[in-house]
């Protein structure tokens, strides 16, 4: 059991470092909501880059993505390049920079708060927060399930699933609850650097034992002759474009990513992050997904319910290194979930609790509700994760979590219209978001087609959000108290 | 150079940026290599394209962020004036 000791030691050591960073950040955090949620808009380039990056990466980078590249070929690298490297970067400028400017000028902390103020509409504020929380809850739950399973795999079942998921949850609640965004951003930076380092070490290791990059690629094409050629199988142009567009637009409205748009300290930080972003995407995704595809040529057999990357590393590298990579995957899950908890809590307290339950709550009370909110949110998703799969109605949550990106993508086009088109009205926004979400949910849960004219239904729902927002805005008048000029779109 | 010329040059610069971004999006997947299985220096040719394209995207974004179009694109001046 020496291996088990090493594996657990690596994981626990990593968790303790994350908690220590949270404690240091706690000492610097004051009690105001802006400091708790946004670190007082004081985040510099390195931390902003890595916190956004680490937040974007979930269990999928280490498990789902390599599995896909193992099963269908390495073209997934191109989908991620288009999606994250280019489309998301452009949205970060078009939505993110503008949100940063208006957020700084008017003190916004959440997306719902910003849109609510733009249209002088508490209803829109509540709708945006409600829709966001609907997709966020199951997504956090899936991350906890992933973390629990990763620990089961790492320890060969010595740590049971519930204990693994509980351990991760308690650590996250501790440092998120204590230190807010400052702690989250700092641990994200550690986690992002750690993931990058570990994945390149893994490539170096596998390339050394596998006889070099050329031999690995040759082995891959011998075992799967279609893998070197671009396209084919799963990878049709429609699927590649549709997946990239839906996920990129979804990411921009995901609460934990959208809230990062408000955090930069100054414009130079945003400019540098924008320019470095595609290269950062390149550095992480190419090695992670190539490993998945090369595994085909190495004759790796992946049992049902397992993931290719851990299997590959267990086969070819010593136990301590495989444990480091699992710790990297845990880091990816935690850095997404901790940010989601914090953003979920801010959406709940600022956009639902404050306007609808306690309009005259003091700042201190709001700060207290926010911290309790983090714990309640994490506790509920943890409990739900224990009961999923046991045949109850909770399996609905898994479906919701799996389709969350498409759900968020329905917010993004109305958001762009609100930021750039002076003719957008409150009712246009409510109708556009409401109809697109309703039609999207119907497709997720009812037996309806998954594509129309070979294109994914989520794309058609996005088109619907555009058409309905524009059409309803055209036939309704803006309320007198709407604040288009604050957004620089007043003059039309 | 009068104001009219300045505005014309700005409009032309902004159109060039929009075209550059459209190209970056359109050829992030090298469609002209579709079903091409050429391997160069141990990696598929299309993967080399991807590596070059991401570096080009970074360089383009860097140049865009340095110029005046960065501010004009989001009406930053209007927001700052309030």
TrEMBL record, chain A:
The chain crosses the membrane at residues 6-26, 38-64, 76-95, 123-141, 161-181, 193-216, 236-254, 275-300, 368-388, 400-420, 457-477. This is Solute:Na+ symporter, SSS family. GO terms for molecular function: symporter activity. GO terms for biological process: sodium ion transport. Keywords: Cell membrane, Ion transport, Membrane, Sodium, Sodium transport, Symport, Transmembrane, Transmembrane helix, Transport. GO terms for cellular component: plasma membrane. Belongs to the sodium:solute symporter (SSF) (TC 2.A.21) family. It is found in: Cell membrane. It comes from the Archaea. InterPro entries: Na/Glc_symporter_sf, Na/solute_symporter, Sodium:Solute_Symporter. It is a multi-pass membrane protein.
TrEMBL record, chain B:
InterPro entries: DUF3311. The chain crosses the membrane at residues 15-34, 46-65. Keywords: Membrane, Transmembrane, Transmembrane helix. Pfam families: DUF3311 (PF11755). The keyword Membrane applies. This is DUF3311 domain-containing protein.
